[in-house]
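Task: encode each sequence below as structure tokens.

Item 1
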Amino acid sequence: MKKVDEDIANTESFQELSEDFISQFASIKYFINRGVGYAIIRNGQVISAATSFSIYDEGIEIEIATNSQYRRKGLVTITAAAIILDCLENGKYPSWDGANESVQLAQKLGYMLKETYDTYFINQ
């Protein structure tokens, strides 16, 4: 596992894993300067990562993803724990907004369900 740097953020495997890892930032350089992320790399490919989808003064919103070939191996738990610890060590709140199976992962990592709400997905 490595902290996401410019080299990792520029890899095709990182960008393909989730277009939302850095989509809210004006550039990769801006993400590196203001955001945070951790990635697990295997054979030069990013196979799991957690990043700050967005940032605000007191914290971040977490974005996570794992390559489908490597799911159910605990990798996303590792990257999510790393970003949570980074936030806590730096006085930031690691906000987790789960709309799918990530709710169970959040609870495993110590988050408590505050409330439920409806979500809608648009298939294009």
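Item 2
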Amino acid sequence: MKKVSVVSVLSLLMLVGFAAMAFAGDGDVVDKGGHVSIVMVAALIAAGFGVGIAAAGCGVGMGHCARGCLEGSARNPELAGKLTVTMFIGLALIESLTIYALVIALIALYANPLLPQLTKIFGL
């Protein structure tokens, strides 16, 4: 139960952080009234949830990886060095998945060519 609440709080903080950036948007996502468009806010919320879910999943995966390495080292201490090297390679690959999610979220926010067109089409 504690893990779920920690993940929920961290996801909420990520969402609030991205939403704060949405309301501090620059001119090409602000409508004539000076308000941030709903499309940009939706993109920021989606990016926040995406990165939060990716970080939560990768954190769980890292925990399982470390647990498996420790159990293997406890059962067979001679293989501890090989298991540690393999664990660090696995952790680096798991961490790269979170970084990929962050990069995709940042691309969706700052280099998305569809945002200006969607705001013009829907008049938002």
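Check on item 2: DSSP finds four helices and no strands in the chain. The chain has one domain: 2-122.
End of task.
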